[in-house]
Amino acid sequence: MPTEPQYVPRSQVLPLDKALEVIDALPGGGVILTKVEEVLNWGRAASIWPLTFGLACCAIEMMQAYATRFDMDRMGIIPRATPRQADCIIVAGRATIKIAPIVRRLWEQMPEPKYVISMGSCATCGGPFYYDNYSILKGIDQVIPVDVYVPGCPPRPEALIEGFLKLQDKIKKEPFLRRRIARAAAAATQA
Amino acid sequence: MALRTEELMLNMGPQHPSTHGVLRMVVTLDGENVVDVQPDIGYLHSSVEKMMENRTYLQNIALVDRGMDYLSAMANEEVWVLACERLGKIEVPERARYIRTIMLELQRISSHLIWLGTFGIDLGAFTAFLWAMRERERIMDLFESATGGRLHHVYFRIGGVFEDLPEGWTDRCEEFCDYFLDRLPEYDELLTGNPIFLARTQGVGVLPLDTAIAMGASGPVARASGLAYDVRKAHPYEVYERVEFDIPVRSEGDCYARYLVRLEEMRQSVRIIRQCLERLPAGEIRSKVAVTLRLPKGEVYARTESPRGDLGIYLVSDGADRPYRVKIRAPAFSNLYALTEMMRGWKVADVIAILGSIDIVLSDVDR
Amino acid sequence: MSWALAEKLKAAFPDVELFPRAGTEPAGTRDQGPGTGSGEQVTAAPESTPAAPRRPAHEVPPQYLTPGVYVPREKLLPVCTTLAGDPEFGLTYLSFVSAVDWPDRNELEVLYHLYSHQTRQELALKVRIPRDDAHIPSVSGVWDGANWHEREAYDLLGITFDGHPNLRRIMMTDDWVGHPLRKDYVYQDPPWLVEVAKERQKDAEGLGLGERV
Ligand code: SF4
Q1: Based on CB atoms within 10 Å of each CB, which residue in A22, B169, C38, C87 is the most buried?
Q2: Sequence ranges of the domains in chain C
Q3: What value does the mean pLDDT take over residues B12-41?
Q4: Cis peptide before A155 (omega within 30 of 0)
Q5: How far apart are the C-alpha atoms of C11 and B329, rounded to whole Å?
Q6: Which domains does chain B possess?
């Protein structure tokens, strides 16, 4: 029986986690790591690519924010049409129970690290559709975790931009390399 | 031996950049040719009809803005207050009627602009989107200064409008009309004569007249197929019987005809707005109506021409302070039903063009 | 809006019954209300007859401002075929199909609204059916556009349209329980949602943003 070619995960070819751990342990390595992290985060924060995914009325304001007057391109925010290329999903509008599994699947399809902006009161908590309603999800955070809530019905484009700035702040502070180390260490102890 | 071929099922949406929201289409393909299209809707069903039964007549104005067709909030408010006014026999002051007409037509322009922009994107003309949004921002400014809201206005009231127009609004509106008429020829240059645009729309997605009527299509979709029917002319409401305007009708029934009809409608809307601004009378803007309004027992069907077509509300009241049952007749629902008929036999690339040309709003389809 | 079409239909099909009109009410109740003066051909226009002292709301007879008729269930198909096919009526355009739920009368009123582009006349049809036996013939053979409207009525109000080509749920998911627009419907979260939400709740409480490591 011919043996099948062994699949080698990429992380074993290039043990990045291991390298990070080693650097972290070096004297002064922590500083380097922090600096690298900062540079990487700066890059990530300045190029958030959200998924073009509009649900309801808020999506119209989202379109306005991409368009002429507000022009989110100038902050590096460029809409992508597929979740595989996106690192942020704007839940713009009310989500029904029928579409909730699809939002969840889209979110699962996005590569890590990924972020969620919940735009409008509907996506945040059900908003105007909270009472006497049988089909709207009372808040998208029942299905996926949310990073930034933008209130309003609909939020103005300026509010959405503010939401993105908040998200940028969050990304800039994120110690994602150290998290990687911690995760690798945890996996190692478990194995 | 004949080559064996198979039909392919293609699933578009609910997340697809050109389904205009959360529409899912199951397209059956034979090679490149579309054999069948089954739209799957309901992804934005917001249970508006149920919620309206539990809200007072006044509260419902805010609800119809959001729950029905969100691109033309004014048109939704209009049909709702019209139904209530008819049933309650409530008078509307003259000035309010003119203001309403102006707002409705501004809303029509802004809704058609969104359509124009997204239709442009669908066909690969991103410029059209940017330009349309630029114009639309101007309308949003007008709306915002008069009503306080950009998308959802809650401006109409049963028996009038909420507030008078702010100072200088009419001048700014006049200015916008001039500006907009200046810009429209640009779209002609960009799209109407564009060979790529023509190749993708002319003769594509034809909807014959009798099919359009049988399927209940209305609005620009039906008018592009040759049905000279517009509620504004057939059953005038507000001040439409007093202003002059034309109903653009074409007989081709293809995507290009639908495009031309909408473009012409925008011109006519500007014409209506100008006449209204000229004749805008002074005076009251709201008749006295109690906040806890109770409509008499009864039933009424009110209809208006929304940017998407024949929008109606069947209102059943049992004498309480909230409606007993509201049925919304959504134009996009019927127009979308006609989609299957339009698409059969076309290439898969035309699916996008045809879908874009009927101008659906999913919240109008699903409600 | 004139009631001429409704009366014509009454002449052709004696089984149908016109919506009660203000002018044709029994004598005891006609002392008040708009439109009493003219007797016949009542229009929706408000009239300035000095109103008698207002009676409490529950005593005022309902006013039907849209002309319409009640059709018995067995007669629906012949009536509809006539309305759509006979050029005398020419009601070729179906605005919508829906229903009104009256639980205290144990009755569903299936509602059709028809329109003619030529004569600009409208007509509402109502069919009363019992709530627990909600069957009605489908009119999608008469007006093609009825297809989706009937599916919607089936989905939201639980009316079975006999002879419909594709009677499935249209708005809600296929496994939905109940018919939401009925007055006695009680909403419940579907079980999968309860589970997912619980999981999310745990993540949010225990680990901060749990999924993000
Ligand atoms: S928050 Fe308001 S604008 Fe946004 S989706 Fe909900 S109802 Fe529409």
Answers
A1: B169
A2: 4-204
A3: 80
A4: no
A5: 29
A6: 46-362 (1.10.645.10)
Q: What are the mean pLDDT values of chain A's consecutive 10-residue runs (191 residues total)?
A: 58 66 80 86 89 85 87 86 88 88 87 87 87 86 88 89 91 82 76 69
pLDDT at residue number A6 = 62
Task: Tell if the CB–CB gap between A143 and C200 is shorter than 8 Å.
Answer: yes
Residue A136 sits at φ, ψ, to 5 deg, of -100, 140
- Cα separation values, C85 from C78, C79, C98, C147, Å: 10, 10, 22, 18
Give the CA count within 13 Å in the CB-facing half-sphere of B65: 21
In the three-class reduction of DSSP (H, G, I as helix; E, B as strand; rest coil), residue B286 is classed as strand
What CATH architecture is C4-204?
2-Layer Sandwich (3.30)
d(CA B152, CA B160): 17
Residue of chain B whose alpha carbon sits nearest to that of C57: B319
Contact A104, A130 (CB under 8 A): no
CA-closest candidate to residue A135, choices B44, B55, B53: B44
Q: Give the pLDDT confidence score for residue B235 in this predicted structure.
A: 87
pLDDT bin (cut points 50, 70, 90) of residue B109 is: very high
Measured between beta carbons, which residues in chain C are less than 8 angstroms from residue A183?
A: 213
A105 CA from centroid of ligand 1 (Å): 22
Beta bridge partners of B301: B314
Given B44, B114, B151, which is nearest A55 (Cβ)? B44
How far is Cα A102 from Cα A79, in angstroms, rounded to an integer? 19
Which residues in chain C belong to E strands, given as ranges?
Answer: 17-18, 63-64, 68-70, 93-102, 107-115, 122-130, 135-137, 160-162
DSSP string, C155-197: HHH--EEET-TT---SSS-TT--S-TTSTT------HHHHHHH
The three-class DSSP label of residue C90 is: coil
Query: What is the 3-state secondary structure of A51-102?
Result: ECCECCHHHHHHHHHHCCCCCHHHHCCCCECCHHHCCEEEEECCCECCCHHH
Q: Which residues pair with C110 in a beta bridge?
A: C99, C127
